[in-house]
Structures are given as C-alpha cells and as structure tokens.
Amino acid sequence: MPLVVDRLVRLLLMTSSKSLPLRAVFKVWRELGLPDDFEDSVISQNSNLFRLCDGHEPSTHILKLVDDIHEKNHLTAAVENWRVTECCREDSQVDRTEIRFSFKHGFPPGMRLSKDLKAKVKQWQRLPYVGPYEEIGEKRKSKAAIMALEKRAVAIVHEFLSLTVEKMVEVEKISHFRKWFEIDMNIRDLFLDHPGIFYLSTKGKTHTVFLREAYERGCLIDPNPVYEARRKLLNLVQLGHRAFFSGIPMIRDADQSKVDEFRGKE
C-alpha cells in the first residue's frame, strides 16, 4: 500500500494543479497497479493526502492532493536515478557533464543511424532538463523554449511509464492526461520522434507505447511484485484451460494445493 500511495502522489505532483479527473485515473488503474477498489482502499483511507472534489461537469470528480506535503525536491525521477547509477559504476567512463540532461537511448539491433540523426540526438541530449516534478515556469514561443517544452514532455511521459507495472500503456489512455500534464504536442508524434526512448506498437487497432530501456528481448528487465503475481495467475489459468480441453487431470498432486488455494479465494 505505501508504494501504491506514493505512485498516486507522484502522478498528481506531475500536474501543475496537483489534481486529476478521477475518470482519467480509472483509465489506468490496472497499469498503475492500483487495487480495483482504490477509491475506497487508497483515496478514502488516506484522507490526509487525497481529496475528491466535484468537477465542472455532471458525475465528474477531481482527485486532488490535500496539501503539498511531499516536497518536490525530495522526489527523484526514474531517469535521474539512472544518471546517478551510470556515473557511480566502477567501470563507468561516462562524462558527467554530458549525461546530466540525458535519457537512456537504445535502438533496435541492425538499425543504422545516419550522421544527421546521431548529431540531432546528441544535441537534444544536451538540452537543459526540466524534471517532471519541477515547475514549468512561463511558456515562451522561441525555438529554444519549444524544444525545452518537448524535452519536459518526454520527461513526464518517461516518468509516467516508469510508474506503470509493465512499463507500457495504451496511447489512447495516456492521452487523457495530456492537458493536465500541460503537454501541448501530439502524444503519438512525441513517441515517434524519440524511437530510442519509446517503442510504439501499432499491432491491431490498439496503439501501445513501451519504455524501451525497461525491456530486453521482449521481457521486463526488472519485474515488480505486481507483475510477477499477475504472471503466476495467468499461468494457473492457462494450465487449467489446457487441462480442461485435453481431458487429463489438471495438474499433479504436488501442485494441486496451489489451485485449491486459488479457488478458495474466489
């Protein structure tokens, strides 16, 4: 529960108003690893942190932080933790001045990068970094300001994906947060413009974005407890499905206790 509360607090702190429509949170409750009754078990049970207010539309509620007691300076984004790790490795040859504003990039094997693209990526990496928990300040229309806003948008989406269980989310779902995160550009275009950071899957009718650095050969590099629990549940369901259609005993006696335990919790 402390991890769930922290995740929800971080999500709210990425907005300038420290608030989000409850319906937007409902869109991604599973991706964020929230319990299905999070309105009662998380929000109501932590009234010192969260408050539900009436929105400006019928049947709409706004989730707000009661007080900004979580100092932003105490929160570090996932990309900032990566920079520290890279600099502190024993065999590190990283130039700290080069990596201070950088994001981890990883392109697919065999993808050839042109010199122009390499130069653009290097230039973009050096742009000043505005973290997802920092104030955006006054928006300007200069080319440098627009590029800075784009990098901030990348930082916000990168942190959003880092907070999810599987480091992935449907593009349509994350679009519900665009206005609240003050992202003025098209979300899908943002993913396409930064293929070294994000992988956009367009299979079927659903477009899904993955955090590229979180995966290796199609598997999560650092699975979390919620992800592992879901995989075990899926394996049990598939095991029972195969056994049912094959007409053989579901599983050996050594594993029967696990199924009995699962059935007892239904």
Automatic annotation (TrEMBL):
MF annotations from Gene Ontology: RNA binding
Domain of life: Eukaryota
InterPro entries: PORR_domain (IPR021099), PORR_fam (IPR045040)
Domain PORR per the UniProt entry, residue ranges: 2-241
Species annotation: Eucalyptus grandis
Signal peptide residue numbers: none
Protein name per its UniProtKB record: PORR domain-containing protein
